Predict the 3D structure of the following.
Amino acid sequence: MNINVLIGVLIPFAGTTLGSAMVFLMKDEMNAKLQKILLGFAAGVMMAASVWSLLVPAMEMAEEDGMGKLSFMPAAVGFLIGIFALLAIDRLVPHLHLGDDKPEGPKTALAKTTMMVLAVTIHNFPEGMAVGVVFAGMLNGDGNISLAAAFALSLGIAIQNFPEGAIISMPLCSEGATKGKSFLYGTLSGLVEPIGALITILLAGIMVPLLPYLLSFAAGAMVYVIVEEIIPEGSIGEHSNIATIGFAIGFVVMMMMDVALG
């Protein structure tokens, strides 16, 4: 495998690992305001990545394939499939979101900490897909996706994974897990990203004509996570405007990275 691709798919995992390591450096509980701005920042990065790095290239690919005014169709179809796929996973996999005492999905005897890790794992899989399909587009010589643009997305996901790693490991520690176990769980929750990326690269290499659909599928999955999970978590309680500020900063940072590097 191309060494650039291997580095690219591992960068987001490194972000999660470094974020999870914050459990060794900070207090057991994260400041509520800091948590909100980090959640907002993560949502902003993911939203900008969905638009600039996934949906726009999907429509540009379709236009180059001769679809003309219907070039939005692959993006629209893939986006909706991504939304409904994550909706189905949300219903089928038992998980527990940060700040929520009521588990979602089917009834289970799993521990609270395990369900929290599963919730973050669900978040991370579409991000891994997004990185994988962008690198797949680059490998297949698509002119709309350069190596720099692929790395911009990978780095952007890593930046938003840093606070996500901290947001999962520190609450686990406050729930009674040791710092070492909290770090391990936080890190493992991000392992699904390089796995998802590599699977997507392999599939996209086989099904090149489906690249626009795969790009928009990843975008839909990430937008589902933003709207269904991250934004509500950032809006709970007081100072929800802090999460909004974080969202704006994250969106602008990712947008500038994508345009500057892509």
Summary: The mean pLDDT is 84. The longest helix spans residues 32-67.
